[in-house]
Write the C-alpha coordinates for this entry.
Amino acid sequence: MGTQMLLIPISILVIAALVGLSKAKIVLKIVSTLSAMASVAMIYVGILGFRTTLELKYNLFNSSSLFTSLNWLVFRVDSLSAFFLLILGILSLCASIYGIKYMEKYFDKEDMRVYTFNYPIFLLTMYLVLICWDLLWFIIFWELMSLFSQFLVAFEQSEEKAVKAAFKYFCMTKAGAEFIILVVVLIILKVTNFNGNYSEIASILPVYLSAHPAMLYALTFALLIGFGVKAAMIPFHSWLPDAHPEAPSNVSALLSGVMIKLPIYMMFRFFLGFFPKDVNIGLVIASFGVITLFFGTMYALLQTDSKRLLAYHSVGQIGYVILALGAGIYLISSGYELLGKVALMASLYHTINHAAFKGLLFLTAGSVIYTTGSRDLNYLGGLAKYMPLTAVSALIGALSIAGMPPFNGFVSKWMIYMSTLPTPTLISLFGALALFISAVTTASFIKYFTAIFTRPPAEEIEAKEVPSSMWIPQILLAVICIIFGIYPFFPLKMISSALGSIGITVNLDALIVYPSIVVPKVGSYSPIIIFAFLLISTLMALLLIPSRDSVVVSIWRTGRSDDLNVSMPAEGYYKDFEEAFSEIYVLGGTSKRAVQKVAKIGRTFGTNFEVLSYDLDSMLSLAMVLILILVVVLGGVGL
Protein backbone atom coordinates (compact mmCIF):
# COMPACT_ATOMS: atom_id res chain seq x y z
CA MET A 1 0.00 0.00 0.00
CA GLY A 2 2.92 2.32 0.79
CA THR A 3 4.24 2.47 -2.75
CA GLN A 4 0.74 2.81 -4.22
CA MET A 5 0.36 5.97 -2.12
CA LEU A 6 2.61 7.67 -4.68
CA LEU A 7 -0.31 7.62 -7.12
CA ILE A 8 -2.91 9.16 -4.79
CA PRO A 9 -1.82 12.81 -5.18
CA ILE A 10 -1.54 12.31 -8.96
CA SER A 11 -5.06 10.93 -9.21
CA ILE A 12 -6.61 13.65 -7.06
CA LEU A 13 -4.86 16.48 -8.89
CA VAL A 14 -5.79 15.15 -12.34
CA ILE A 15 -9.45 15.00 -11.24
CA ALA A 16 -9.16 18.53 -9.82
CA ALA A 17 -7.76 19.85 -13.11
CA LEU A 18 -10.56 18.25 -15.12
CA VAL A 19 -13.16 19.70 -12.76
CA GLY A 20 -11.41 23.05 -13.10
CA LEU A 21 -12.37 23.28 -16.77
CA SER A 22 -15.93 24.14 -15.75
CA LYS A 23 -17.10 27.76 -15.43
CA ALA A 24 -19.37 27.14 -12.42
CA LYS A 25 -18.45 29.20 -9.33
CA ILE A 26 -18.61 26.16 -7.04
CA VAL A 27 -15.64 24.75 -8.95
CA LEU A 28 -13.23 27.00 -7.05
CA LYS A 29 -14.16 25.35 -3.75
CA ILE A 30 -14.06 21.86 -5.24
CA VAL A 31 -10.65 22.37 -6.87
CA SER A 32 -9.20 24.00 -3.73
CA THR A 33 -10.54 21.19 -1.52
CA LEU A 34 -9.20 18.48 -3.83
CA SER A 35 -5.83 20.27 -3.97
CA ALA A 36 -5.76 20.39 -0.16
CA MET A 37 -6.52 16.65 -0.02
CA ALA A 38 -3.73 15.93 -2.48
CA SER A 39 -1.40 18.04 -0.32
CA VAL A 40 -2.22 15.94 2.74
CA ALA A 41 -1.44 12.83 0.68
CA MET A 42 1.92 14.40 -0.32
CA ILE A 43 2.74 15.00 3.33
CA TYR A 44 1.94 11.36 4.08
CA VAL A 45 4.14 10.21 1.19
CA GLY A 46 6.91 12.40 2.58
CA ILE A 47 6.58 10.83 6.02
CA LEU A 48 6.66 7.34 4.48
CA GLY A 49 9.74 8.33 2.48
CA PHE A 50 11.69 8.91 5.68
CA ARG A 51 10.81 5.42 6.93
CA THR A 52 11.61 3.48 3.77
CA THR A 53 12.42 4.06 0.11
CA LEU A 54 9.27 3.98 -2.03
CA GLU A 55 9.45 2.89 -5.67
CA LEU A 56 6.99 2.30 -8.50
CA LYS A 57 7.98 1.31 -12.01
CA TYR A 58 5.75 1.25 -15.11
CA ASN A 59 6.60 0.01 -18.58
CA LEU A 60 4.97 2.58 -20.87
CA PHE A 61 6.52 1.70 -24.23
CA ASN A 62 8.53 -1.07 -25.85
CA SER A 63 10.43 1.16 -28.23
CA SER A 64 13.87 0.08 -29.40
CA SER A 65 15.09 3.66 -29.73
CA LEU A 66 18.29 4.81 -28.08
CA PHE A 67 16.41 6.62 -25.33
CA THR A 68 15.10 3.47 -23.67
CA SER A 69 14.81 5.37 -20.39
CA LEU A 70 11.57 6.83 -21.70
CA ASN A 71 10.11 3.32 -21.97
CA TRP A 72 9.99 3.17 -18.20
CA LEU A 73 8.39 5.63 -15.82
CA VAL A 74 10.07 5.21 -12.45
CA PHE A 75 8.78 6.95 -9.32
CA ARG A 76 11.07 6.75 -6.31
CA VAL A 77 11.08 8.62 -3.02
CA ASP A 78 14.19 8.59 -0.85
CA SER A 79 14.78 10.79 2.20
CA LEU A 80 15.94 13.79 0.14
CA SER A 81 12.78 13.67 -2.00
CA ALA A 82 10.72 13.13 1.15
CA PHE A 83 12.18 16.26 2.74
CA PHE A 84 11.14 18.42 -0.21
CA LEU A 85 7.78 16.62 -0.48
CA LEU A 86 7.04 17.73 3.08
CA ILE A 87 7.79 21.32 2.08
CA LEU A 88 5.54 21.01 -0.97
CA GLY A 89 2.74 19.29 0.96
CA ILE A 90 2.64 21.76 3.86
CA LEU A 91 2.82 24.89 1.69
CA SER A 92 0.32 23.64 -0.88
CA LEU A 93 -2.08 22.63 1.90
CA CYS A 94 -1.97 26.15 3.37
CA ALA A 95 -2.13 27.83 -0.06
CA SER A 96 -5.06 25.69 -1.20
CA ILE A 97 -7.17 26.35 1.91
CA TYR A 98 -6.28 30.04 1.75
CA GLY A 99 -7.31 30.20 -1.92
CA ILE A 100 -10.88 29.08 -1.24
CA LYS A 101 -11.88 32.53 -0.01
CA TYR A 102 -9.05 34.66 -1.37
CA MET A 103 -9.70 33.78 -5.02
CA GLU A 104 -13.39 34.69 -4.75
CA LYS A 105 -12.44 38.34 -5.20
CA TYR A 106 -11.62 37.55 -8.84
CA PHE A 107 -15.13 36.30 -9.64
CA ASP A 108 -16.63 38.38 -12.47
CA LYS A 109 -13.21 39.94 -13.16
CA GLU A 110 -11.09 37.15 -14.62
CA ASP A 111 -11.62 33.79 -16.31
CA MET A 112 -11.43 31.54 -13.23
CA ARG A 113 -10.65 28.48 -15.35
CA VAL A 114 -7.13 29.85 -15.84
CA TYR A 115 -6.70 29.33 -12.10
CA THR A 116 -8.86 26.26 -11.43
CA PHE A 117 -7.22 24.25 -14.22
CA ASN A 118 -3.61 25.38 -13.94
CA TYR A 119 -3.34 25.43 -10.14
CA PRO A 120 -3.71 21.64 -9.60
CA ILE A 121 -1.55 20.95 -12.66
CA PHE A 122 1.15 23.20 -11.21
CA LEU A 123 1.07 21.22 -7.95
CA LEU A 124 1.13 17.98 -9.92
CA THR A 125 4.20 18.91 -11.97
CA MET A 126 6.12 19.97 -8.85
CA TYR A 127 5.19 16.64 -7.24
CA LEU A 128 6.34 14.71 -10.33
CA VAL A 129 9.66 16.58 -10.42
CA LEU A 130 10.30 15.38 -6.87
CA ILE A 131 9.32 11.75 -7.27
CA CYS A 132 10.62 10.93 -10.77
CA TRP A 133 13.86 8.94 -10.90
CA ASP A 134 15.07 9.54 -14.44
CA LEU A 135 16.74 12.59 -15.96
CA LEU A 136 14.73 12.44 -19.20
CA TRP A 137 11.40 12.35 -17.37
CA PHE A 138 12.71 15.04 -15.03
CA ILE A 139 13.24 17.37 -18.02
CA ILE A 140 9.67 16.74 -19.22
CA PHE A 141 8.11 17.48 -15.82
CA TRP A 142 10.42 20.47 -15.26
CA GLU A 143 9.33 22.07 -18.54
CA LEU A 144 5.65 21.41 -17.80
CA MET A 145 6.07 23.03 -14.39
CA SER A 146 7.41 26.22 -16.00
CA LEU A 147 4.62 26.19 -18.58
CA PHE A 148 1.67 25.88 -16.20
CA SER A 149 3.11 28.17 -13.53
CA GLN A 150 3.45 31.01 -16.06
CA PHE A 151 -0.30 30.81 -16.74
CA LEU A 152 -0.86 31.42 -13.02
CA VAL A 153 1.48 34.41 -13.05
CA ALA A 154 -0.57 35.83 -15.95
CA PHE A 155 -3.87 35.00 -14.22
CA GLU A 156 -4.97 38.66 -14.24
CA GLN A 157 -4.99 38.82 -18.01
CA SER A 158 -6.55 42.27 -17.98
CA GLU A 159 -3.33 43.57 -16.38
CA GLU A 160 -0.63 44.20 -18.97
CA LYS A 161 1.98 44.13 -16.23
CA ALA A 162 1.03 40.57 -15.22
CA VAL A 163 1.11 39.29 -18.80
CA LYS A 164 4.53 40.87 -19.43
CA ALA A 165 5.88 39.42 -16.16
CA ALA A 166 4.66 35.95 -17.12
CA PHE A 167 6.22 36.25 -20.58
CA LYS A 168 9.55 37.32 -19.10
CA TYR A 169 9.41 34.53 -16.52
CA PHE A 170 8.69 31.86 -19.11
CA CYS A 171 11.31 33.05 -21.60
CA MET A 172 14.07 33.24 -18.99
CA THR A 173 13.31 29.90 -17.31
CA LYS A 174 12.91 28.23 -20.70
CA ALA A 175 16.32 29.54 -21.74
CA GLY A 176 17.75 28.22 -18.47
CA ALA A 177 16.15 24.83 -19.08
CA GLU A 178 18.08 24.54 -22.34
CA PHE A 179 21.32 24.45 -20.37
CA ILE A 180 19.93 21.66 -18.16
CA ILE A 181 18.89 19.73 -21.28
CA LEU A 182 22.41 20.14 -22.64
CA VAL A 183 23.83 18.65 -19.43
CA VAL A 184 21.37 15.74 -19.49
CA VAL A 185 22.14 14.96 -23.13
CA LEU A 186 25.89 15.05 -22.54
CA ILE A 187 25.63 12.77 -19.49
CA ILE A 188 23.41 10.11 -21.01
CA LEU A 189 25.25 10.10 -24.35
CA LYS A 190 28.83 10.14 -23.14
CA VAL A 191 28.68 8.38 -19.78
CA THR A 192 25.61 6.25 -19.06
CA ASN A 193 24.87 4.71 -22.46
CA PHE A 194 21.49 6.47 -22.87
CA ASN A 195 20.38 5.59 -19.36
CA GLY A 196 18.91 8.46 -17.30
CA ASN A 197 18.15 6.48 -14.15
CA TYR A 198 19.40 8.34 -11.05
CA SER A 199 20.85 5.19 -9.44
CA GLU A 200 22.78 4.35 -12.60
CA ILE A 201 24.10 7.90 -12.90
CA ALA A 202 25.13 8.06 -9.24
CA SER A 203 27.15 4.86 -9.62
CA ILE A 204 28.98 5.85 -12.83
CA LEU A 205 29.23 9.61 -13.15
CA PRO A 206 31.44 10.53 -10.13
CA VAL A 207 34.22 8.20 -11.29
CA TYR A 208 33.99 9.43 -14.89
CA LEU A 209 34.02 13.11 -13.95
CA SER A 210 36.91 12.63 -11.55
CA ALA A 211 38.95 11.52 -14.55
CA HIS A 212 37.58 14.30 -16.80
CA PRO A 213 37.77 17.57 -14.85
CA ALA A 214 37.13 19.73 -17.94
CA MET A 215 33.83 17.94 -18.46
CA LEU A 216 33.04 18.35 -14.75
CA TYR A 217 33.52 22.11 -14.88
CA ALA A 218 31.62 22.46 -18.16
CA LEU A 219 28.61 20.60 -16.73
CA THR A 220 28.80 22.65 -13.53
CA PHE A 221 28.81 25.88 -15.54
CA ALA A 222 25.72 24.82 -17.50
CA LEU A 223 23.87 23.59 -14.41
CA LEU A 224 24.55 26.79 -12.48
CA ILE A 225 22.93 28.75 -15.30
CA GLY A 226 20.04 26.32 -15.71
CA PHE A 227 19.16 25.93 -12.05
CA GLY A 228 20.34 29.46 -11.24
CA VAL A 229 17.63 30.99 -13.43
CA LYS A 230 14.84 29.01 -11.78
CA ALA A 231 16.25 29.66 -8.29
CA ALA A 232 16.55 33.40 -9.08
CA MET A 233 20.26 33.38 -8.37
CA ILE A 234 21.90 36.71 -9.27
CA PRO A 235 22.55 37.58 -12.11
CA PHE A 236 19.69 35.37 -13.43
CA HIS A 237 17.06 36.70 -11.03
CA SER A 238 15.32 39.57 -12.84
CA TRP A 239 12.16 37.58 -13.64
CA LEU A 240 11.31 36.95 -9.97
CA PRO A 241 10.65 40.50 -8.66
CA ASP A 242 8.26 40.96 -11.59
CA ALA A 243 6.53 37.57 -11.59
CA HIS A 244 5.93 36.80 -7.92
CA PRO A 245 4.05 40.03 -7.09
CA GLU A 246 1.72 39.65 -10.09
CA ALA A 247 0.51 36.15 -9.24
CA PRO A 248 -2.40 35.66 -6.79
CA SER A 249 -0.93 35.73 -3.26
CA ASN A 250 -1.44 32.04 -2.49
CA VAL A 251 0.34 31.24 -5.77
CA SER A 252 3.11 33.70 -4.83
CA ALA A 253 3.54 31.71 -1.61
CA LEU A 254 4.00 28.53 -3.64
CA LEU A 255 6.33 30.13 -6.19
CA SER A 256 8.56 31.55 -3.49
CA GLY A 257 8.11 28.86 -0.86
CA VAL A 258 8.38 25.77 -3.04
CA MET A 259 9.12 26.25 -6.73
CA ILE A 260 12.41 28.11 -6.35
CA LYS A 261 13.46 25.33 -3.91
CA LEU A 262 13.22 22.64 -6.61
CA PRO A 263 16.47 23.75 -8.27
CA ILE A 264 18.04 23.54 -4.81
CA TYR A 265 16.79 19.95 -4.61
CA MET A 266 18.40 19.15 -7.96
CA MET A 267 21.62 20.96 -7.04
CA PHE A 268 21.92 18.67 -4.01
CA ARG A 269 21.31 15.67 -6.31
CA PHE A 270 23.89 16.74 -8.87
CA PHE A 271 26.66 18.37 -6.85
CA LEU A 272 26.57 15.90 -3.95
CA GLY A 273 25.01 12.77 -5.44
CA PHE A 274 26.18 12.67 -9.07
CA PHE A 275 29.35 14.79 -9.12
CA PRO A 276 32.61 14.30 -7.20
CA LYS A 277 33.00 16.90 -4.45
CA ASP A 278 35.32 19.58 -5.77
CA VAL A 279 36.73 22.53 -3.84
CA ASN A 280 36.52 24.89 -6.83
CA ILE A 281 32.88 24.05 -7.50
CA GLY A 282 32.07 24.68 -3.86
CA LEU A 283 33.80 28.05 -3.94
CA VAL A 284 31.99 29.12 -7.13
CA ILE A 285 28.58 28.13 -5.74
CA ALA A 286 29.29 29.89 -2.45
CA SER A 287 30.39 33.02 -4.36
CA PHE A 288 27.11 33.09 -6.29
CA GLY A 289 25.30 32.59 -3.00
CA VAL A 290 26.90 35.52 -1.22
CA ILE A 291 26.40 37.83 -4.23
CA THR A 292 22.75 36.79 -4.37
CA LEU A 293 22.04 37.34 -0.69
CA PHE A 294 23.86 40.67 -0.69
CA PHE A 295 22.28 42.36 -3.71
CA GLY A 296 18.87 40.72 -3.29
CA THR A 297 18.48 42.04 0.25
CA MET A 298 19.98 45.46 -0.47
CA TYR A 299 17.41 46.00 -3.23
CA ALA A 300 14.60 44.67 -1.03
CA LEU A 301 15.29 47.57 1.33
CA LEU A 302 14.35 50.07 -1.42
CA GLN A 303 10.92 48.62 -2.19
CA THR A 304 7.62 50.24 -1.23
CA ASP A 305 5.38 47.57 -2.80
CA SER A 306 4.71 44.90 -0.16
CA LYS A 307 4.84 41.89 -2.50
CA ARG A 308 7.79 43.24 -4.47
CA LEU A 309 9.70 43.69 -1.19
CA LEU A 310 8.96 40.06 -0.31
CA ALA A 311 9.97 38.95 -3.81
CA TYR A 312 13.39 40.61 -3.50
CA HIS A 313 13.81 38.93 -0.14
CA SER A 314 13.13 35.61 -1.85
CA VAL A 315 16.20 36.35 -3.95
CA GLY A 316 18.18 37.32 -0.85
CA GLN A 317 17.16 34.29 1.22
CA ILE A 318 17.83 31.82 -1.58
CA GLY A 319 21.33 33.32 -1.50
CA TYR A 320 21.72 32.04 2.08
CA VAL A 321 20.68 28.56 0.94
CA ILE A 322 23.13 28.56 -1.99
CA LEU A 323 25.95 30.03 0.12
CA ALA A 324 25.57 27.24 2.68
CA LEU A 325 25.44 24.58 -0.06
CA GLY A 326 28.61 25.89 -1.70
CA ALA A 327 30.34 26.36 1.66
CA GLY A 328 29.49 22.76 2.59
CA ILE A 329 31.01 21.36 -0.61
CA TYR A 330 34.05 23.62 -0.25
CA LEU A 331 34.70 22.78 3.41
CA ILE A 332 34.25 19.01 3.00
CA SER A 333 36.59 19.07 -0.02
CA SER A 334 39.12 21.11 1.99
CA GLY A 335 39.16 18.70 4.92
CA TYR A 336 36.80 20.54 7.29
CA GLU A 337 34.47 17.56 7.37
CA LEU A 338 32.26 18.44 10.34
CA LEU A 339 31.90 22.16 9.52
CA GLY A 340 31.10 21.27 5.91
CA LYS A 341 28.33 18.92 7.00
CA VAL A 342 26.94 21.57 9.34
CA ALA A 343 26.88 24.00 6.39
CA LEU A 344 24.97 21.48 4.26
CA MET A 345 22.52 20.92 7.09
CA ALA A 346 22.14 24.69 7.42
CA SER A 347 21.35 24.91 3.71
CA LEU A 348 18.49 22.42 3.97
CA TYR A 349 17.37 23.90 7.30
CA HIS A 350 17.13 27.36 5.76
CA THR A 351 15.32 25.86 2.77
CA ILE A 352 12.44 24.56 4.89
CA ASN A 353 12.51 27.64 7.12
CA HIS A 354 12.28 29.97 4.16
CA ALA A 355 9.36 27.98 2.81
CA ALA A 356 7.53 28.47 6.11
CA PHE A 357 8.18 32.15 6.82
CA LYS A 358 8.08 33.37 3.23
CA GLY A 359 4.91 31.44 2.53
CA LEU A 360 3.49 32.99 5.69
CA LEU A 361 4.55 36.52 4.71
CA PHE A 362 3.04 36.23 1.22
CA LEU A 363 -0.22 35.03 2.71
CA THR A 364 -0.33 37.94 5.16
CA ALA A 365 0.45 40.35 2.32
CA GLY A 366 -2.43 38.74 0.43
CA SER A 367 -4.73 39.25 3.41
CA VAL A 368 -3.87 42.94 3.43
CA ILE A 369 -4.61 43.15 -0.31
CA TYR A 370 -7.87 41.22 0.20
CA THR A 371 -9.18 43.68 2.78
CA THR A 372 -7.68 46.98 1.57
CA GLY A 373 -6.99 46.35 -2.12
CA SER A 374 -3.51 47.86 -1.74
CA ARG A 375 0.08 46.72 -1.47
CA ASP A 376 1.50 50.25 -1.33
CA LEU A 377 3.55 50.63 1.87
CA ASN A 378 3.34 54.44 1.60
CA TYR A 379 -0.45 54.24 1.73
CA LEU A 380 -1.04 51.46 4.25
CA GLY A 381 -0.81 51.76 8.02
CA GLY A 382 -2.50 51.10 11.34
CA LEU A 383 -4.02 47.74 10.35
CA ALA A 384 -3.01 45.88 13.52
CA LYS A 385 -6.13 47.03 15.37
CA TYR A 386 -8.40 45.80 12.54
CA MET A 387 -6.48 42.62 11.66
CA PRO A 388 -4.86 41.36 14.89
CA LEU A 389 -4.43 37.72 13.79
CA THR A 390 -2.86 38.72 10.49
CA ALA A 391 -0.64 41.25 12.29
CA VAL A 392 0.62 38.66 14.80
CA SER A 393 1.25 36.16 11.97
CA ALA A 394 3.13 38.79 9.96
CA LEU A 395 5.19 39.74 13.02
CA ILE A 396 6.24 36.11 13.56
CA GLY A 397 7.12 35.80 9.87
CA ALA A 398 9.11 39.05 9.97
CA LEU A 399 11.02 38.04 13.12
CA SER A 400 11.73 34.62 11.62
CA ILE A 401 13.16 35.91 8.34
CA ALA A 402 15.14 38.54 10.24
CA GLY A 403 16.84 35.72 12.16
CA MET A 404 15.63 36.70 15.62
CA PRO A 405 15.72 34.09 18.41
CA PRO A 406 13.83 31.91 19.20
CA PHE A 407 12.32 31.68 15.71
CA ASN A 408 13.37 29.22 13.01
CA GLY A 409 15.32 31.68 10.84
CA PHE A 410 17.73 32.28 13.70
CA VAL A 411 18.67 28.59 13.95
CA SER A 412 19.53 28.10 10.28
CA LYS A 413 21.34 31.43 9.98
CA TRP A 414 23.25 30.66 13.17
CA MET A 415 24.35 27.34 11.68
CA ILE A 416 25.55 29.15 8.54
CA TYR A 417 27.63 31.56 10.63
CA MET A 418 28.98 28.81 12.87
CA SER A 419 30.12 26.71 9.93
CA THR A 420 31.67 29.52 7.86
CA LEU A 421 33.12 32.12 10.25
CA PRO A 422 35.59 29.90 12.19
CA THR A 423 37.39 28.61 9.06
CA PRO A 424 40.68 30.24 7.95
CA THR A 425 39.40 30.47 4.37
CA LEU A 426 37.62 32.88 2.04
CA ILE A 427 34.37 31.30 3.19
CA SER A 428 34.72 33.10 6.54
CA LEU A 429 34.46 36.45 4.69
CA PHE A 430 31.27 35.21 3.03
CA GLY A 431 29.93 34.34 6.49
CA ALA A 432 30.70 37.87 7.71
CA LEU A 433 28.83 39.38 4.74
CA ALA A 434 25.87 37.10 5.46
CA LEU A 435 25.91 38.32 9.05
CA PHE A 436 25.84 41.96 7.92
CA ILE A 437 23.01 41.31 5.48
CA SER A 438 20.98 39.74 8.26
CA ALA A 439 20.94 43.18 9.91
CA VAL A 440 19.73 44.73 6.64
CA THR A 441 16.98 42.09 6.51
CA THR A 442 15.89 43.11 10.01
CA ALA A 443 15.75 46.76 8.96
CA SER A 444 13.73 45.88 5.89
CA PHE A 445 11.12 43.99 7.90
CA ILE A 446 10.87 46.71 10.51
CA LYS A 447 9.75 48.88 7.59
CA TYR A 448 7.45 46.19 6.21
CA PHE A 449 5.67 45.48 9.49
CA THR A 450 5.40 48.98 10.90
CA ALA A 451 4.37 50.51 7.56
CA ILE A 452 1.43 48.12 7.29
CA PHE A 453 0.33 47.45 10.83
CA THR A 454 1.48 50.04 13.39
CA ARG A 455 2.32 53.34 11.70
CA PRO A 456 -0.55 55.86 11.44
CA PRO A 457 -1.95 55.62 7.88
CA ALA A 458 -1.73 58.52 5.47
CA GLU A 459 -5.53 58.53 5.46
CA GLU A 460 -8.15 56.52 7.31
CA ILE A 461 -8.44 52.94 6.02
CA GLU A 462 -11.48 50.73 6.54
CA ALA A 463 -10.43 47.15 7.15
CA LYS A 464 -11.39 44.01 9.03
CA GLU A 465 -9.86 40.64 9.82
CA VAL A 466 -9.89 38.12 6.97
CA PRO A 467 -12.15 35.01 7.07
CA SER A 468 -11.03 32.00 9.11
CA SER A 469 -10.12 29.96 6.00
CA MET A 470 -7.47 32.63 5.35
CA TRP A 471 -6.06 33.25 8.82
CA ILE A 472 -5.90 29.57 9.86
CA PRO A 473 -3.19 28.74 7.24
CA GLN A 474 -1.28 31.82 8.43
CA ILE A 475 -1.41 30.64 12.04
CA LEU A 476 -0.33 27.13 11.02
CA LEU A 477 2.79 28.44 9.26
CA ALA A 478 3.50 30.78 12.18
CA VAL A 479 3.39 27.82 14.58
CA ILE A 480 5.87 25.95 12.37
CA CYS A 481 8.20 28.97 12.51
CA ILE A 482 8.09 28.82 16.32
CA ILE A 483 8.41 25.02 16.68
CA PHE A 484 11.34 24.79 14.25
CA GLY A 485 13.02 27.57 16.22
CA ILE A 486 12.50 26.23 19.71
CA TYR A 487 12.93 22.54 18.90
CA PRO A 488 15.55 22.22 16.12
CA PHE A 489 16.25 18.53 16.80
CA PHE A 490 13.18 17.43 14.83
CA PRO A 491 14.11 19.14 11.51
CA LEU A 492 17.78 18.22 12.07
CA LYS A 493 16.84 14.55 12.26
CA MET A 494 14.98 14.82 8.93
CA ILE A 495 17.89 16.70 7.36
CA SER A 496 20.51 14.16 8.50
CA SER A 497 18.38 11.42 6.93
CA ALA A 498 18.02 13.45 3.69
CA LEU A 499 21.77 13.99 3.45
CA GLY A 500 22.39 10.33 4.25
CA SER A 501 20.40 9.34 1.15
CA ILE A 502 22.97 11.10 -1.09
CA GLY A 503 26.00 9.74 0.73
CA ILE A 504 26.63 12.48 3.31
CA THR A 505 26.61 10.72 6.66
CA VAL A 506 25.84 13.06 9.54
CA ASN A 507 26.23 11.99 13.14
CA LEU A 508 23.90 14.13 15.23
CA ASP A 509 25.94 13.21 18.32
CA ALA A 510 28.63 15.50 16.90
CA LEU A 511 26.29 18.44 17.49
CA ILE A 512 25.05 20.08 20.65
CA VAL A 513 21.42 21.03 20.22
CA TYR A 514 19.86 23.61 22.52
CA PRO A 515 16.55 25.40 22.02
CA SER A 516 17.24 27.77 19.08
CA ILE A 517 20.97 26.98 19.02
CA VAL A 518 22.98 24.26 17.28
CA VAL A 519 26.76 24.09 17.63
CA PRO A 520 29.32 21.49 16.56
CA LYS A 521 31.53 19.88 19.22
CA VAL A 522 34.70 21.49 17.86
CA GLY A 523 36.56 24.75 18.34
CA SER A 524 37.52 26.73 21.38
CA TYR A 525 34.15 28.27 22.11
CA SER A 526 31.80 27.02 24.77
CA PRO A 527 28.15 26.48 23.78
CA ILE A 528 27.13 27.40 27.31
CA ILE A 529 28.91 30.76 27.04
CA ILE A 530 27.31 31.42 23.65
CA PHE A 531 23.87 30.58 25.00
CA ALA A 532 24.42 32.81 28.04
CA PHE A 533 25.65 35.63 25.78
CA LEU A 534 22.52 35.42 23.63
CA LEU A 535 20.28 35.31 26.67
CA ILE A 536 21.92 38.34 28.25
CA SER A 537 21.91 40.23 24.93
CA THR A 538 18.20 39.59 24.49
CA LEU A 539 17.44 40.70 28.03
CA MET A 540 19.50 43.88 27.58
CA ALA A 541 17.66 44.62 24.33
CA LEU A 542 14.33 44.20 26.11
CA LEU A 543 15.46 46.52 28.89
CA LEU A 544 16.24 49.19 26.32
CA ILE A 545 12.63 49.24 25.15
CA PRO A 546 10.91 52.24 26.82
CA SER A 547 8.38 51.22 29.42
CA ARG A 548 4.94 52.74 29.69
CA ASP A 549 6.08 54.73 32.70
CA SER A 550 8.69 56.58 30.66
CA VAL A 551 8.24 60.32 30.36
CA VAL A 552 6.81 61.14 26.94
CA VAL A 553 7.09 64.73 25.78
CA SER A 554 4.10 65.87 23.77
CA ILE A 555 4.56 67.04 20.20
CA TRP A 556 4.60 70.79 19.60
CA ARG A 557 1.55 71.45 17.43
CA THR A 558 2.33 75.07 16.52
CA GLY A 559 -0.63 76.23 18.56
CA ARG A 560 -3.19 73.99 16.85
CA SER A 561 -5.52 71.78 18.90
CA ASP A 562 -6.09 68.99 16.35
CA ASP A 563 -3.84 65.92 16.20
CA LEU A 564 -0.96 65.98 13.73
CA ASN A 565 -0.29 63.11 11.40
CA VAL A 566 3.42 62.38 11.98
CA SER A 567 3.49 59.24 9.86
CA MET A 568 6.69 58.72 7.87
CA PRO A 569 6.24 57.30 4.35
CA ALA A 570 7.83 53.92 3.77
CA GLU A 571 10.21 55.32 1.16
CA GLY A 572 11.72 57.63 3.79
CA TYR A 573 12.67 54.95 6.35
CA TYR A 574 16.30 54.40 5.34
CA LYS A 575 17.26 57.35 3.14
CA ASP A 576 20.53 57.86 5.00
CA PHE A 577 21.44 54.20 4.61
CA GLU A 578 20.65 54.28 0.91
CA GLU A 579 22.88 57.32 0.47
CA ALA A 580 25.71 55.71 2.45
CA PHE A 581 25.58 52.64 0.20
CA SER A 582 24.78 54.51 -3.00
CA GLU A 583 27.76 52.90 -4.77
CA ILE A 584 26.09 49.50 -4.38
CA TYR A 585 22.95 50.74 -6.10
CA VAL A 586 24.99 52.50 -8.80
CA LEU A 587 26.76 49.20 -9.47
CA GLY A 588 23.41 47.42 -9.65
CA GLY A 589 22.05 50.02 -12.08
CA THR A 590 25.14 49.73 -14.28
CA SER A 591 24.80 45.93 -14.34
CA LYS A 592 21.14 46.24 -15.29
CA ARG A 593 21.95 48.53 -18.19
CA ALA A 594 24.69 46.14 -19.35
CA VAL A 595 22.24 43.23 -19.34
CA GLN A 596 19.72 45.33 -21.25
CA LYS A 597 22.38 46.06 -23.88
CA VAL A 598 23.12 42.34 -24.20
CA ALA A 599 19.39 41.67 -24.56
CA LYS A 600 19.19 44.34 -27.25
CA ILE A 601 22.07 42.71 -29.12
CA GLY A 602 20.27 39.39 -28.79
CA ARG A 603 17.09 40.85 -30.26
CA THR A 604 19.05 42.31 -33.17
CA PHE A 605 20.74 38.96 -33.77
CA GLY A 606 17.38 37.21 -33.64
CA THR A 607 15.87 39.60 -36.17
CA ASN A 608 18.79 39.14 -38.57
CA PHE A 609 18.66 35.38 -38.10
CA GLU A 610 14.97 35.37 -38.96
CA VAL A 611 15.76 37.13 -42.25
CA LEU A 612 18.56 34.62 -42.92
CA SER A 613 16.28 31.67 -42.17
CA TYR A 614 14.44 32.27 -45.46
CA ASP A 615 17.67 31.56 -47.40
CA LEU A 616 17.78 27.76 -47.92
CA ASP A 617 21.47 27.54 -48.86
CA SER A 618 22.56 29.50 -45.80
CA MET A 619 20.45 27.38 -43.46
CA LEU A 620 21.72 24.09 -44.90
CA SER A 621 25.31 25.26 -44.50
CA LEU A 622 24.66 26.33 -40.94
CA ALA A 623 23.00 23.01 -40.12
CA MET A 624 26.02 21.11 -41.44
CA VAL A 625 28.38 23.19 -39.28
CA LEU A 626 26.26 22.63 -36.17
CA ILE A 627 26.08 18.87 -36.77
CA LEU A 628 29.85 18.79 -37.19
CA ILE A 629 30.35 20.67 -33.90
CA LEU A 630 27.90 18.36 -32.13
CA VAL A 631 29.69 15.25 -33.37
CA VAL A 632 33.04 16.64 -32.22
CA VAL A 633 31.69 17.60 -28.77
CA LEU A 634 29.98 14.26 -28.22
CA GLY A 635 33.01 12.18 -29.08
CA GLY A 636 33.16 11.97 -32.86
CA VAL A 637 33.66 8.41 -34.16
CA GLY A 638 33.41 7.18 -30.58
CA LEU A 639 29.65 7.50 -30.90
In short: The longest strand covers residues 54-59. The chain has a mean pLDDT of 88. The beta strands are 54-59, 72-77, 511-514, 517-520.
